[in-house]
Amino acid sequence: MRLYQRCLLGLSLAGSLQLASCSTQPTKDDETMTQAQSDLAMAAADAHSYAKPTEAVARHLDLDLDVNFDQKILSGTAAYQIENLTGTDQIIFDTRDLEIEKVFLGEEMEETTFRLGDSKEYLGRPLIVDIKPDTKKVTIQYKTSPNAAALQWLNPQQTAGKKDPFLFTQSQAILARTWIPIQDSPGIRITYNAQVKVPENLLAVMSAENPVEKNNTGVYTFEMEQPIPSYLMALSVGDLVFRQVGPQTGIYAEPATIEAAAYEFAELDKMLEAAEKLYGKYRWDRYDLLVLPPSFPFGGMENPRLTFVTPTVLAKDRSLTSLIAHELAHSWSGNLVTNATWNDFWLNEGFTVYFERRIMEELYGKEYADMLQVLGYQDLTNTLNDLGPGSADTRLKLDLEGRDPDEGLTDIAYEKGNFFLRNIERAVGRERFDAFLNKYFSTFAFQSTNTDKFLDFLRSELIQGDEALAKKINIEGWVYSPGLPEDFQKPTSARFAQVEEAFQSWISGKPAAQLDTKDWSSHEWLHFIRMLPESMTQQQMAELDRAFNFTNSGNSEVLAAWFLHAIRNNYTTADQALEAFLTKVGRRKFLVPIYKALIATPEGKKKALAIYAKARPNYHAVSTVTLDELLK
Ligand code: BES
Ligand code: ZN
Questions:
Q1: pLDDT above 50 for 21
Q2: Which numbered ligand comes closest to the C-alpha of 171?
Q3: Section 267-277 average pLDDT
Q4: Whole-prediction pTM
Q5: Whole-number Cα distances in Å, 213 to 162, 203, 221, 628
Q6: How confident is the model at residue 527 (pLDDT cuts 50, 70, 90)?
Q7: Does the annotation count 595 as an active-site position?
């Protein structure tokens, strides 16, 4: 309903603008609509933002924040350069759990009136600011709440160094509004400058041009000159040091972690080169990583110029770096060309998974990338089973209206999206597809796009009226239908074929210690563990553990997969390691399946609740929201 109203509203206000989500046919006038208007029209159709960007839109942000670790509060001002497109007397920002103190207009800082609308659970409240037709600047003075969902305030014990507190943000999907009053739609882009004051012994970094060392004032300034959507606003504060990797790349981490990180990510520059070779110049100047404490709720987050990454990828053998390839790939798919609404999330993640595996193929060969495809396919199958094959959430184009977008953002976008692109690649050949993708990224650079716009581009650039080709590409089956279409080609892996052989011989009685696992990477191990039967005897579990030491693996992927078997088979030898893992690691992707496996039995549930009570204070809100629901 809401979307429909917005649609009508947008039409009446923006004259004959064709709104992306409206079902009316494009008009002649549509062709004269500028790119900027088209972007705003898509953002206006975003059901997850209160902003009305076709009326008044923010273009630049000057952020001035004080970071108070004692109170767990950010306070300061967000000053926006705005454009009043219709001469309206209001501009609307998204907020959630923010205390808005005062709002000023213009360089003269004339105080103005404002009101906060009703609160809706995950959407928060609209901040409606009274402006004048010629207002160019709006300054909002505000404070965050100690439980702002984007922020995690860590005490020294929760860091690697154990000496200093730590703060990080996670803004995607719609959490930027919990630490900045902002037009929080991925269809709206702003440039920003920031000044951040932190305790003197700590360093602040952002998704922007960053300092490389601490100063003695504790005041740091930042500049992001390329326009970015709000979900890429990011800040972290801690005892951080910087280490150069290549001319364009580097790593920020706590001193206790920097050595391990420098080893793990030594190939960062090579990765960047491989990516540029595939899809064109890197448009963000530097590419650095920030290694966070283990409570970081994701594997990685593609904050521009500074990817945030979990320390659980530090496997000591560089075996989990496809995650870095993934976040790097977002510098094109996502950060440069951005999904206009969360319904188009597959444009961010599906393209990125496809691109990630092309980077890995470039660096480590096809056999390596094939393993990733098969593991991805397994994830996809699990998600399809969980959601049910007929579920509307298994379509690429989503409808998340009325729901927290976080709920709908599943492996469908990632893996079905990836396999759709592989299907197109197969239909037109790699050379043509790469040329197409290059053109896609350059045509829509620093813009938002939605599913329809991408498909139009696909039709005009690739399909070009070729009906046989259109049939092969099968847009309807992939984008708008649930499940997997019939033309889906299951990926295969030669290296996994050997794993399957080893597995078969073990099942047929060959001792685990005699299996030929010499050159296995963590991917082969993961495949092996995932293949193990649901139900195994204590002897089988113990034999595997003796031969391969899974319970004490230093590889987080291996460990997380092994724990699922340990739980199902009540293999108590792993209890201690399991509890240690759950209390230390806050990565939701690992936590959810493990807790799910635990609560499948009454005794397991007891264990889960006991561990959760201890572990919960270590988790970020992104993870506790999901787990509270699961364990309630
Ligand atoms: N942008 C995502 C993380 C994200 C998605 C945060 C949706 C909030 C809402 C990031 O690029 C990502 O996909 N991370 C993955 C790793 C990747 C290798 C699949 C993760 O964290 O597991
Ligand atoms: Zn991603």
A1: no
A2: 1
A3: 98
A4: 0.94
A5: 20, 7, 12, 39
A6: very high
A7: no
